[in-house]
Specification:
The protein is built from 7 helices and no strands. The longest helix is centred in the middle third of the chain and has 18 residues. By secondary structure, it is an all-alpha fold.
């Protein structure tokens, strides 16, 4: 599975689910997160974060308007785990910078002030 932002270790079931989700994204499909979460079982928050990281990366790479903030609004439980929130902002930054190499950290530090205090949030893969 490609790694838009240094994915943490996940169970084999979550990894397999994410691989299938990513393959659907690569094939140009728009898989619905809610349907995929039904398969997540007890690791649903971790799975949600992994699926969102993939979707966010591919949407931005395709030139679509997408942000971590969009997903935080839709799934507020993501903000309960600071590591997940920081990671998703990092995914957004790295994907956006891929299309705009001149994009600096300052805009993201203003947009996500709580993340700015974490070291290495914006390190690319």
């Amino acid at each position: 599975m490609s790694d838009p932002q240094n994915r943490p270790a996940v169970s084999a079931a979550v990894d397999e689910l994410c691989d299938r989700f990513e393959n659907a994204l690569k094939a140009g499909q728009r898989p619905a997160l809610d349907a995929w979460l039904a398969e997540a079982g007890p690791e649903s928050l971790k799975t949600l974060a992994e699926l969102i990281a993939l979707e966010l990366h591919y949407r931005i790479q395709a030139g679509e308007s997408a942000s971590a903030a969009d997903y935080f609004a839709r799934f507020p439980q993501l903000l309960a785990d600071q590591a997940i929130a920081v990671r998703l902002v990092g995914v957004e930054f790295c994907a956006a910078r891929g299309g705009e190499p001149q994009l600096g950290e300052a805009e993201f530090r203003r947009r996500y002030p709580d993340v700015a205090e974490f070291p290495n949030w914006c390190d690319g893969p």
